[in-house]
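WARN retry 2 of 3 for item q-0093 after timeout on previous attempt; input resubmitted unchanged.
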Amino acid sequence: MISSSLYIICAMNSNIKQTFVCETVYHLFIAVIKSLNHRNANLIITDFTPSLSNYIPELKKKKVFNKIIFLKQRLKIRPEYNKFSLFRKTFFRKECIEKSVNENSKILKVHNEILNSEINLFFNLGHVTAYFVNKYKNNFFRMIEDGQRNYISRLGFLKIYKRKYIYKSFIGEGIDDCIKEIHVQSPDKLPKRVRAKGIKFDLKKLIKRAEKSIIKEIFLNTELNICGQNNSLIITQPLSEDSRSITEKQKVAIYKDIIDSHTNGKNIYIKVHPREKTNYESYFDKDIRVLSKDFPLEILNIFDDLKFEKGITIWSSALDNLNCINKKIFLGIDYFPKIKEQVKKIHF
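OK item q-0093 returned
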């Protein structure tokens, strides 16, 4: 047991306004549950996951958040940032990031609300996270678990030194002084340099207490229609989308191999990752059912009678979050020696 980690359920002070910065469907799922409990929060979402903006109308209808701001990070902010010279991005990085966000979004409309709030981040790297840490460094920040990335330390001493003393900007990975808490399911597994900030994040209990009817209305447009026994769930990942070296056909071949090797060929469901562009229905027979990519995998936990005999993935940490799986199979990158190096670059 790590004495420096606080083991509590992630409660927020109901009297303090919250700001959630979300870039994936999972981030939004957690933010919605917390905001429904809190009822005093603003939402910032980006186009990192293309479908994320589709939730805005229903979120506004349900009045889940006070205000919602959509940042076109991929389409506007990052391209504008890349126009700055290498010199400016090196020695004036903080100013370049702030300028690219302020001038290509409506973020300043909620400046005062953000300034007087606690800020909840999920990604521990990236321009959007850097923007908030740089601009609102005197705010209280907490990071909420995003998956295995929270437990992997990728920043060496030299990078940390350069970001802190040369760039004088955002460091990342929870190291920045304004990040006061890191809410993860396994605080004792955090990198040693940030482990003292670790607080137990009880995801299963959070979902159990969620307002299930509202959650379904926001995230599920159609019935899941999962039935039968001995079901197998294949959790895909955006391998071809995140790597120029892995083609869509290679990716699909991987999942066909997984199905052939690890299932009995019956009652197979494929849960597509929200950022994937692949039309899996065109590659598989009709008896293999493809679930929508537009709902968070963790929503399966709100259905008490839903069960899968097997859940199979390469490395998706979302599988660990599911209560409805009897046998969880993590194949790992070593399962595919031909593309191991390409997959490793995505994973790490």
